[in-house]
Amino acid sequence: MGSNFNNAQNFQIDNYQYVNVNPAADALSNECEAEQYHNTTSTGPRTKFPRTNAEDQLEVLQVLQAAALDPCFPFRILIASRPERVFREFFDPERNPTSFAQKLDLNDKHQANADITLFLEAQFNIIRRRYNLPPSWPPPGMVQMLVKNASGQFIYAATVIRLLDTGHRDPPKALLEAILKTGPTQKMTSSPFEPLDTLYTHILDSSPDPPLSVRWIRSITLLNQRLWVSASYIHLLLQTDPESNEAEHLLGNLHSLIRIPLPSNQATTRYDFYHKSLFDFLEDPGRCRQLYVDDSEIRVFIWNAFFRACAMPFVLLQAAV
Q: What is the DSSP letter of 291?
């Protein structure tokens, strides 16, 4: 892997020298394939089990930690990631007492709507000039609608702009109208959200049981639309064993999609979701494909869970709450 650092790009801002090493970023991402760095084909006495992506990510984090704690190391390190389990545990001061970095959760401490609005307005100015569109485009309120749909996630806004400006056969005006009209029941010849759909599919596939995790997500959404249901009662209803930790098992890798309450707050806090567009994705069989679950199946899933919970001994129910 060391030879890949020849691809590093050097650049300077003010008086600081920066080095951007893409392979290191790839190694920390979920797209990293551990097998390409480890020989698992040997049949000799030293054969080991194939390493997982999480193990490779942890190893890179440990190397960066050792470097950052070395007084002679001349660089500052910035690590950006979705809140997947290996990163949460590594930077958790209770699990890692030698924590060496401050954590900034952009979902909690950064209001992205103003930045997304600025980004969209700047990009629309470029598109207007490029395609000789009138100053009145896009119509009033359309930028605000896109910002609302983005739900604080730049990936939505960036995907919209990428679609409008990638030489699509349809003009930008027609494409933008189609994007805002696209819903669970409307089909398009080519999905304008394919990159976003790919990301959602990848994240959901990181769950040990993606179809079941989707049923949980859809059930939580349906219940929250009608009731205020705490995380504890969601566990009581949906877990097949009230004494198990099935929720963490299924949803532990999905923190980039779901705001999961801390264990100490689960009795008074409910599950929430960061991405409004996640539900457009899950409710459209043409977009989520093998992950699609029909509404009627979700209702049957909830009813079955309800009857199962009612059949549990009172002592177990009390312990689960």
A: G
- The two three-digit tokens of residue 21, written as one number: 């090493």
Confidence of residue 99 (pLDDT cuts 50, 70, 90): low
Q: Look at residue 134 and give its three-state secondary structure.
A: coil
Neighbouring residues of 58: CB distance < 8 A, sequence distance ≥ 6: 86, 90
- Taking the CA of residue 268 as centre, how many other CA atoms within 13 Å lie in the half-sphere pointing to its CB? 2
118 close to 85: Cβ distance less than 8 angstroms:
no
Nearest to 277 by CA among 207, 186, 193, 218: 193
Per DSSP, helices labelled H in the chain are 22-28, 53-68, 85-90, 106-109, 113-131, 142-150, 154-164, 172-181, 194-205, 210-226, 231-238, 246-251, 277-282, 285-288, 295-310, 314-320
pLDDT band of 126, cuts 50, 70, 90: very high
Question: Is 102 in a helix, a strand, or coil?
Answer: coil
pLDDT at residue 28, rounded to an integer: 46
Q: What digits encode the pLDDT tens for the residues 131-147?
A: 898 999 998 899 998 88
In this structure, what token pair is assigned to residue 71?
């007084």
* Separation CA 143–CA 66 (nearest Å): 45
Question: For residue 67, what are the contacts with CB-CB under 8 A and spacing of at least 6?
Answer: 73, 75, 77
In this prediction, residue 8 has a pLDDT band, given cuts at 50, 70 and 90, of very low
Q: Which residue has the tokens 């549990």?
A: 312
**Cα–Cα distance measured from residue 269 to residue 216, given in angstroms and rounded to the nearest whole number:** 17
Secondary structure in 3-state letters for 137-192: CCCCCHHHHHHHHHCCCHHHHHHHHHHHCCCCCCCHHHHHHHHHHCCCCCCCCCCC
The angle that helices 210-226 and 231-238 make with each other, rounded to 10 degrees, is: 130
Q: How far is CA 136 from CA 127, 166, 180, in A?
A: 13, 22, 17
